[in-house]
Design brief:
Blueprint: H1 26-42, H2 54-58, H3 61-86
Length: 88
């Protein structure tokens, strides 16, 4: 939803900003608020669009798969270690 807000933000002097525009972190709310403030000062036409979710859109599937395999390997190593400790 937040990726389409640039179509209505600033229209009729109404803008939306909040942490809900990204992942819900305080930093997302700050970035959204700063973007609206910049838009109010510089004008809607001169301010680019805000994309707090851009990193996910740019991430390719193989990159996600690579980190998933590393995480699985780490979990397997911890499980094996715990099993060795408690079976002795």
């Amino acid at each position: 939803m937040s990726r389409h807000l640039d179509k209505i933000n600033g229209v009729r002097h109404v803008s939306f900003a909040g942490a809900w525009m990204g992942f819900g972190f305080h930093e997302d709310g700050f970035a959204a608020g700063s973007h609206v403030a910049k838009m109010l000062i510089e004008g809607r036409e001169k301010t680019g669009t805000l994309n707090l979710m851009g990193r996910l859109d740019d991430m390719v599937h193989s990159e996600v798969g690579y980190w998933r395999h590393i995480l699985k390997l780490g979990v397997l190593a911890v499980q094996t270690l715990i099993e060795d400790i408690f079976t002795k």
